[in-house]
């Protein structure tokens, strides 16, 4: 398998990562800015890219933006806000057709950089702030998005578990922000925050597609700029916090199916060598349909509608999520704990290991087939200070032993059990 390695270079305070490949028909430009996940700024950072997305000085509304994208053979412009560990990040993405697939002579890659630079560096302003109408529209949209979390009970339960488990840690914060902070945000305040973000916080620019690297470096120099002021540093995520005594949180809501979520601290994050055994551990425990949680909790015991586990790779957390009938709570907790003990005791079959290695290998293989997948994986390494290649990960997984998985299991601590039950049901 040919490895796909980004070539990285620092230009005027911007980390540029280039991957020239011929396998994609489009070129993807992806700008990532990350900042600390904190109460004071999380809502501003969530709102910011969506306001920028609404219009710039040259393209003042969505109609003008879409018209220009159509002229660029249906190019697409995205924004996103998310978090990895205790870092919040903002993404601006431009996907544009490779020039070799059009008959006329048009510098599409340069057009893509020019458009992205226009949107990021020349936002539409009114007075000393962003356009007021756009800010108010996006504030209302953000409020609805946060309130809508409660309609997805699986996501809601996982967020409530996170809030209870990480009460004193930044990771408790929802990447979309704090609803109560939205009304106080002004167009002027948001613009002031924008200037700090665009000039000072770490910026990574990814380019994947068929291009000449020297050309990309020149385009970044032409269309992107950074302030000359002091650059902000973002502290690393704390993933070594000691687990507490088992903490049980129960809430009632009008739900037809109870949500049992369990939070565990692994004390291992993506940068560590033990992360590969941890991935295998999670895969055998609850990452796939062949896993212990699915097989023993859902299939054999018929206690759950679903039972899965997932890792937060930067924060070192593992979340077990299941949907159960409320009167099965005690039985479900007991059997889930039994699966955790089985992992530590080495009750792991060769078949489980083989199936998990194959399933994880397939997941990584899928990343090879997507420009976004390649970027996301590299950025995860950048944020955690250990950039591995996908090939390294696939080969490393093959070498993981049952004993290494058992050692990982001994480190894992059960921290919090959160149960969302129906109103009025017997406790």
Write out the CATH superfamily name of the largest domain: Metalloenzyme, LuxS/M16 peptidase-like
Q: Radius of gyration, Cα only, in angstroms?
A: 23 Å
Proportion in β-strands = 15-25%
- Overall number of strands: 13
Q: Count helical runs.
A: 14
SSE string, helix = H, strand = E?
A: EEEHHEEHEEHHHEHEEHHEEHHHHHE
Q: How is the quaternary structure best described?
A: single chain
Structural class determined from secondary elements: alpha+beta
Q: Could you tell me how far the N terminus lies from the C terminus, measured between alpha carbons in angstroms?
A: 55 Å
- Helix share bin: 40-55%
What is the CATH top level name of the largest domain? Alpha Beta
> Are there runs of 5+ residues with pLDDT below 50, and where?
none
Largest sheet: 6 strands, mixed
Principal-axis shape: globular
> Biggest sheet: strands side by side, in what order?
1-2-8-3-5-4
Task: Name a few traits of the molecule.
Cytochrome Bc1 Complex, Chain A, domain 1; 427 residues; globular; single chain; six-stranded mixed β-sheet; five-stranded mixed β-sheet; alpha+beta
